[in-house]
Amino acid sequence: MTSAPPVAPEAPAAPAARAAAGLRATARIAAAADGRGGTALPLLAGEGPLALRRTRGEGAEAGVMLVGAMSAPLGGDHLSVEADAGPGARLGLRSAAATLALPGRDGAPARYDVRLTLAEEAAVRWLPEPLVSVQGSDLRVRTRVELAPTARLLLREEQVLGRTGESPGLLRSRLTVLRGGRPLLDQELACGPGAPGGWDGPAGLAGHRALGQLLVVDPQFAEAPPEPAVLGEFAAVTPLAGPAVLVTALAPDALRLRELLDAACSTYGW
């Protein structure tokens, strides 16, 4: 029988007040190999709406669940998630429910930043639930990942434009991935009222209201890179100029989108 890896006591989410300028909150996670084949969490601290809970991981992986403790992000809010995986650490990050981008009182945009840092031989799975762009909202999402050359990453993004029967808000997102200090992927997306023209046309989303992607970075792809492929009518597999593959998908709803990305994950992920 093996003992459970050590973990820092879970710090309760610090109270946060939503001032006129909006709420500011950051969730911080640090993962470290424990020297016994597992992963410890020396830092697990949330604030305001960003509460963190330790969950059962797979194998040597430490699991962390992001739990929403209040409605956010609203217009004017700035939320951040920061996770650092040390050498050889295994970390699985998920969220308990979908994130709803909601309009604020003064029309100011909200921000949601995610920063992941992976050291040598680290592996991180970032698998949050969908982000829903509610009518009247204005959200700017920025995800930045920095990987050491031997690190592995499994990252899923799912975005739903509007709740059932409503138009979406304005959603602007950017994903930047650096591997060994060099750019691997840098892309931007804008959808909804105020986005550049054509976002919903035949060359854009073509009327679909759910879009997502799965990014897998794995040094093993350097020896056996995945082949370009088409998954169904509105999903594509694109090998990147590095040991990585990007799967992009459109769907009429979040359920179908998840089915497409789950199928891709079973093929390219771990």
Q: Kindly state the number of beta strands.
A: 19
Amino- and carboxy-terminal Cα gap: 26 Å
Element order: H for helix, E for strand: EEEEEEEEEEEEEEEEEEEH
| Total number of distinct structural domains | 1
Low-confidence stretches: none
Shape label: globular
| Helix content percent band | under 10%
Strand count, sense and barrel status of the largest sheet are: 11 strands, mixed
If you average the pLDDT, what whole number results? 91
Q: What is the structural class?
A: mainly beta
Number of helices: 1
Measured by DSSP, the beta-strand proportion falls in: over 45%
**Cα radius of gyration in angstroms:** 19 Å
Main location: cytoplasm
Subcellular location: Cytoplasm
Subunit structure: UreD, UreF and UreG form a complex that acts as a GTP-hydrolysis-dependent molecular chaperone, activating the urease apoprotein by helping to assemble the nickel containing metallocenter of UreC. The UreE protein probably delivers the nickel.
Pfam family, one: UreD
